[in-house]
Specification:
The protein is α+β, with helices and mostly antiparallel strands. It is built from ten helices and 16 strands. It has helices at 2-9, 25-34, 65-70, 81-87, 135-144, 177-181, 201-205, 207-226, 241-247, 276-286, and strands at residues 15-20, 39-40, 49-50, 55-60, 76-80, 92-96, 107-114, 129-132, 150-153, 168-173, 184-193, 195-199, 229-237, 255-258, 264-272, 289-295. The two termini are 51 Å apart.
């Protein structure tokens, strides 16, 4: 009887994973799917399902994740470098999350004033009012430049606050398009940020969780490495081999293998997808035959 009770009370180990909601939610879910972790989330659900019964998922704002991860309430999270710095959270950084080549541009938190403002430099904000979500880092930024200003937390719609509610703001941007549309001018960059995968020190110290985290990070990195890459395979006569290899990118060393016919070789390589349309016609002219392009899901180094 005691054995039956102990079996009922035993709990299978699980890893608690936080997925960022907001703009990073869909790219994160798509990345996990490419990494082999099929993930879905209902329209009104905060608990995505994942094809791994040892992982429990929930949606958590990136701003809140560092504190929850630090305290061990979440084992693994995905948040911005900006929020790690802002919260001064003690977390283990596992990987920089590059979702795609299109979105590799980092987020910049910039000090901004209205276009008509007389402020031209950081020093001109002495005694002024600044609104931002990034209060601590903004204060540190000003202190390093010996500028004293009132930094207030902004609960949203930060771009509309100057000049009536604030003399300046510190806001996040990638391209600056939205700021220019609101007649705002960038004075200086406070910090640049990219998404990071982080783990709690407690989870990292647990052998089972650490292995689970390492495996996940490996697959995620493999999926990111494969982004925008394809596998090219082709045959060529040995007499044309030098000409064919000269067309392929120099940094990607192709594999050359003999075929049953000693006059021919098989050539395989990994290249950027965006150059395929340029090099394939040249490869064919150089003598390559049977050129095949394969999509890639992961590249594990």
């Amino acid at each position: 009887m005691p054995r039956l009770c102990s079996l009922r009370l035993s709990k299978k180990p699980t890893l608690r994973l936080a997925i960022p909601n907001g703009s990073l939610q869909q790219p994160t879910i798509e990345l996990f799917c490419r990494a082999g972790y099929d993930m879905k989330v209902g329209t009104r659900s905060y608990y995505p399902t994942i094809a791994d019964d040892e992982i429990e998922c929930m949606l958590v704002r990136p701003q809140e994740q560092p504190r929850y991860v630090q305290d061990g309430l979440i084992d693994v999270g995905i948040t911005g470098y900006d929020w790690i710095r802002e919260t001064k959270a003690n977390v283990v950084e596992l990987a920089e999350m590059v979702y795609s080549k299109v979105s590799r541009r980092p987020t910049r938190w910039v000090l901004v004033v209205p276009e008509a403002s007389p402020v031209r430099a950081v020093g001109d904000l002495e005694g002024k009012r600044i609104a931002t979500e990034l209060v601590r880092l903004t204060q540190e930024f000003l202190e390093q430049r010996h500028v004293h200003a009132l930094v207030e937390y902004s609960y949203g719609a930060t771009e509309v606050k100057p000049p009536l509610l604030a003399d300046a703001i510190v806001d996040a941007t990638e391209t600056g398009t939205s700021l220019r549309a609101n007649n705002l001018r960038i004075i200086e960059t406070v910090i640049e940020s990219t998404p990071r995968m982080i783990a709690s020190p407690a989870a990292w110290a647990d052998p089972w969780k650490r292995q689970k985290i390492d495996d996940m990070a490996l697959m995620i990195k493999g999926a990111m490495a494969a982004e925008g890459k394809v596998w090219l395979s082709m045959n060529a006569l040995r007499t044309d081999l030098e000409a064919v290899l000269a067309i392929l990118p120099a940094l990607d060393t192709p594999t050359v293998a003999s075929l049953s016919d000693p006059a021919w070789v098989d050539i395989t390589t990994i290249v950027d997808e965006n150059i395929v349309r340029v090099i394939v016609p040249r490869l064919k002219k150089a003598g390559a035959r049977g050129i095949v392009e394969y999509p890639l899901n992961k590249i594990i180094e």
